[in-house]
Design a protein that fits this description.
The model has no long low-confidence stretch (mean pLDDT 95). It is built from eleven helices and eight strands. Helices cover 36% and strands 16% of the residues. The two termini are 24 Å apart. It has 302 residues and is an alpha/beta fold. The protein has a single domain, classed as Ureohydrolase domain (Arginase, Chain A), CATH 3.40.800.10. Helix 3 runs parallel beside helix 4, helix 8 crosses helix 9 and helix 9 packs parallel to helix 10. Bound molecules: manganese (II) ion. Manganese (II) ion binds next to loops.
């Protein structure tokens, strides 16, 4: 595979600064060398230009830093679209989860994609439901066509409606939803596999179902991995940790099953926060999971 790494060091959520250093932490943990060792051809495009949040106006309190985020994500979408059009695979390093506004929209510009969103949260708020005004809590809603038109319309061809169909979206590992956010997810028709579902059916069965949803009638699967889907025991360095998440092995099995599909067209690794991390544990884990999702095996299925 020909893989192109790019960083989006965006960090516009107050009170949780540090995820702008995520791309450095993940690169430092050996992403490119690890992927090359699997036999992939790997290029690193460097980082998308992101202004420091201190230099930007936060603006509307229900859509904080909207102007700055739209500008960054439009650039992200252009780059990801060109990578996918070249037949290459983007691996996009966050930054907070708002990067998916650009990455998924860019990848889905000229094709129908399913999305598997691995996350402790739903990221399905809008300006009307958000308790915080943080846009990193809104990207999946916007990709599904809900929310401010500047976010909904980001990164795609003009006037083409939602970037992804909610019927092809599966959210896995959720354990913290706002009430109105949950209502909107139900209304939209995205499928949610909470941690209760993982406990009840096992991660193998949950991923089998999620892959089925994301691949049905689509031309590929975009995987957006928020490291907070893991339990903070394994991933302490994330923007918004929530106890009760995936174990190390569950996360690897999820990644391995995605690789087996042969349908993954792009991968986000988001919300690594080196300030809160312990000796880059979470940056290294992001690399390990990326390698599993892109073909690394000790032995393979028997
Ligand atoms: Mn997220």
């Amino acid at each position: 595979m020909h893989i192109e790494i790019m960083g989006v060091p965006i960090d516009f959520g107050p009170g949780r600064r540090g995820v702008d250093m995520g791309p450095s932490a993940i690169r430092y943990a050996g992403l490119q060398a690890g992927l090359e060792a699997l036999g992939h051809t790997v290029e690193d495009r460097g980082n998308v230009q992101v202004p420091p949040s201190e230099t930007c106006e936060s603006g509307d309190p229900r859509l904080r830093y909207l102007d700055a985020i739209v500008a960054v994500e439009q650039r992200t979408a252009e780059q990801v679209a060109s990578i996918v059009t070249a037949g290459h695979m983007p691996v996009v390093l966050g930054g907070d989860h708002s990067i998916a506004l650009g990455s998924v929209a860019g990848a889905a510009r000229d094709r129908t994609l399913g999305v598997i969103w691995l996350d402790a949260h739903g990221d399905f708020n809008t300006a009307d439901t958000t308790p915080s005004g943080n846009i990193h809590g809104m990207p999946l809603a916007a990709l599904c066509g809900y929310g401010d038109e500047r976010l909904v319309g980001l990164g795609g061809s003009a006037g083409t409606g939602p970037r992804v169909s909610p019927q092809n979206v599966a959210v896995v590992g959720v354990r913290d939803l706002d009430l109105e956010e949950r209502d909107l997810m139900r209304e939209a028709g995205v499928t949610v596999y909470s941690m209760e579902a993982v406990d009840r059916y096992g991660i193998g069965e949950v991923m089998r179902r999620a892959i089925d949803i994301a691949s049905r009638g689509t031309q590929g699967i975009y995987v957006s991995l928020d490291l907070d889907v893991l339990d903070p025991m394994y991933a302490p360095g994330v923007g918004t940790p929530v106890t009760g998440g995936l174990t190390y092995r569950e996360a690897h099995l999820a990644a391995e099953m995605l690789a087996e599909t042969g349908q993954v067209v792009g991968l986000d690794l988001v919300e690594v926060n080196p300030i809160l991390d312990q000796r880059n544990t979470t940056g290294a884990l992001a690399v390990e999971l990326a390698l599993s999702a892109l073909g690394k095996r000790v032995w393979g299925q028997t």
